[in-house]
Amino acid sequence: xxxxxxxxxxxxxxxxxxxxxxxxxxxxxxxxxxxxxxxxxxxxxxxxxxxxxxxxxxxxxxxxxxxxxxxxxxxxxxxxxxxxxxxxxxxxxxxxxxxxxxxxxxxxxxxxxxxxxxxxxxxxxxxxxxxxxxxxxxxxxxxxxxxxxxxxxxxxxxxxxxxxxxxxxxxxxxxxxxxxxxxxxxxxxxxxxxxxxxxxxxxxxxxxxxxxxxxxxxxxxxxxxxxxxxxxxxxxxxxxxxxxxxxxxxxxxxxxxxxxxxxxxxxxxxxxxxxxxxxxxxxxxxxxxxxxxxxxxxxxxxxxxxxxxxxxxxxxxxxxxxxxxxxxxxxxxxxxxxxxxxxxxxxxxxxxxxxxxxxxxxxxxxxxxxxxxxxxxxxxxxxxxxxxxxxxxxxxxxxxxxxxxxxxxxxxxxxxxxxxxxxxxxxxxxxxxxxxxxxxxxxxxxxxxxxxxxxxxxxxxxxxxxxxxxxxxxxxxxxxxxxxxxxxxxxxxxxxxxxxxxxxxxxxxxxxxxxxxxxxxxxxxxxxxxxxxxxxxxxxxxxxxxxxxxxxxxxxxxxxxxxxxxxxxxxxxxxxxxxxxxxxxxxxxxxxxxxxxxxxxxxxxxxxxxxxxxxxxxxxxxxxxxxxxxxxxxxxxxxxxxxxxxxxxxxxxxxxxxxxxxxxxxxxxxxxxxxxxxxxxxxxxxxxxxxxxxxxxxxxxxxxxxxxxxxxxxxxxxxxxxxxxxxxxxxxxxxxxxxxxxxxxxxxxxxxxxxxxxxxxxxxxxxxxxxxxxxxxxxxxxxxxxxxxxxxxxxxxxxxxxxxxxxxxxxxxxxxxxxxxxxxxxxxxxxxxxxxxxxxxxxxxxxxxxxxxxxxxxx
Amino acid sequence: xxxxxxxxxxxxxxxxxxxxxxxxxxxxxxxxxxxxxxxxxxxxxxxxxxxxxxxxxxxxxxxxxxxxxxxxxxxxxxxxxxxxxxxxxxxxxxxxxxxxxxxxxxxxxxxxxxxxxxxxxxxx
Lengths: 859, 124
Description:
The complex is a heterodimer. Chain A is of the alpha/beta class. In chain A, helix 1 (about 20-30) packs parallel to helix 7 (about 305-320) and helix 22 crosses helix 25 (about 785-795). The radius of gyration of chain A is 31 Å and the shape is globular. Mean pLDDT of chain A is about 85; it is low at about 1-5, about 125-130, about 415-425 and about 850-859. Chain B is mainly β. Chain B has no helices and ten strands. In chain B, the strands form two sheets. In chain B, strands 1-2-10-9-5-4-3 form a seven-stranded antiparallel β-sheet, with no helix packed on it. Chain B has a three-stranded antiparallel β-sheet with strand order 6-7-8, with no helix packed on it. Chain B is globular, with a radius of gyration of 13 Å.
């Protein structure tokens, strides 16, 4: 097949930063017809990552977790291959490796850190210095890429003091990084206050108090005039413009950024007055085939150093390239961030530069909250503001800029608790107000999404992308759901006004052992198919013994009741446990014999075990008698419980394996078998980074490293596939088991009914970080209880099928008809398909593929 | 196999089991004159009998559903797709127009008896 049909255009994207990546995603989602073939040429050797959260790297977040890369077979991503020239006449770009033709070229080259001409900052930078940043002397760093951060981290080892040149947003981020690396930290800022661009003087003063409390020393109103070294070449310190001397072992220069426009400059494109590729409102440069987006673009002359305007530009160009007419809407330069643990936000006309504008300020030295609103001269229209210390009001205020105030000014500014209280803010907003500025989502779009059935924050995120970038608008999403009349009731069902978590606590604390007592004391009616299995699961989690004893039996869904999985024709399937997917030939033969003797359909499951289908209720004990005698036990495929721990073959056999993944998987499966939970739990262990066990698609996944195990939490396949997130690296087996124990028990205690771990973590205030605090740092003081609960589970485990077979009372349930226990259900009949029995059902149609056809050959 | 059938009050009652054989809030399947019937005992000791066939899925499974209540109505939920039925009327409370047949059932001398030939649905 000819790959180059005349219909398709070559699209080359230069740069794979946040904006470049967003552009590619936006284009691919709009270009359903495959109009463009996309090639991305990137300078960094790493695919796009979240530069906004760069500093999280020092909090232990891995490079992998910061990744924004979305694998896409339709995109040719070439990392570490920077473009060195654009040949506009021949419409080609050149890299070190070759040339790439283009029909459209999108520049997303971003910016570089600006290093002022400070004496001693550079290694003797000769005229041959390549790139925008000549080589900095050892010990002097910029703060832009993951490589920069890695270099800072490595250099900081064994050193004591660090200084940051620049007290703006990036400078304070860098200062926090140095703090976290254990260095005494200084910040040198030329302006008389910190974050001069974002906050006013009073806000800066409040900020300074916070910063000083963290032992970060600000030096304000002074410039750095020289960086001096000791005779041995090590850094000695900084000379400041007031003549003072600041000794330091390491310097991070965070004095601003400049657009990467050198390619455009060399190609003769028009640049902005202060640099940047000059583009029109459609983000098109002076060459109609070349576009520029993000920090390298000067939209009608102005460069923007924030990600939200960059994303907006990405959307504009994606739209234009599929024939649209989108235009850059102008930028919302609002910022909200947490710097050094202090919440800071600035929005709209934060400095009150509008003629005749009025300020309303609120300062509370006790809580150290500072807030300022800038109003129009008639005090009716909100123009902007600054918040330091408490930014609860930020989403509502930011969305109100240019419109009427959503409430009386002081009521808006005074610390208002969790911000979800009144909802007055969002209700007062016009429909066109942008609630999520990162992704440009308006209130109207959210209201529509709610009307179409979104009932919670994760739903809104999935439908609209609102809240998926910086997350600052999530409280607004909650408010919006509340005022839209979506009931966020936690009630489990009509019989209980409690959430599952609340019921769990009631049952645990009051030591309730029966549903009857629970519903009599805390509920109404007689329960239903929702609350009864949920309560049964809680009772089981709390170690109430055999799941079918006494009244508990009546609570169980049919699967738990018969310890098997009901199928469409009313028969059941049987899944013996095969821990880690490891099985002896003898056991395999037993499974084969049982299947043959009872005429069961057999299929290998996704969890590395074997499912036997078509068993009638009265056959289940006979089947299990054979299986138990051969050493099998229940696989709990029927329960909201631990299912399987899949494994790859690991270091025992595999030439790549670095740890015994099978051994760990078996040990963990035996440890957690039978554990009842709000939903099923799946796991896997991979023996090396090749990840053959697909551990990252599991509730808890484990990947072997040279030094131990990496633990990933919160993945799943299913309806909404999710990758698990990295929780810990290079863990010892002991630590790994401890964390998994606590993770599972905390999940079992606090999750909603049928809430899988991914959604549970998402719903936790503080997400994975909160989870880490609870199960690693014991922030809630729960760890001992969680450990004890798991120890009880492990100690009390008993195979449900063995227990069932040993008790005639329990066996008496497994009958077809109470008055004819030996008569098989006459409605169950089978036919044969591919040599196996399958339900005989009139409407079922087997899939056949017809004759082979030649594909993809154009006539 | 013997199916115990007695004639009384012009109704032929089939004995399906002893009353204590029924667990509270759980069902059993019984064969009554060749028909599959699901017999339930609710928490207050009342007996109900409905058709064993789930009219939506077409499988004979109703006795294996979870027994409970919705408002005042004693209910059972299909174990396949959880549609809820009123045990008194057979009406599906989730899908309008769907119902299971309802049978007469009684306890006599400690024995549970079902009358074959279901009543028209919709009458209590």
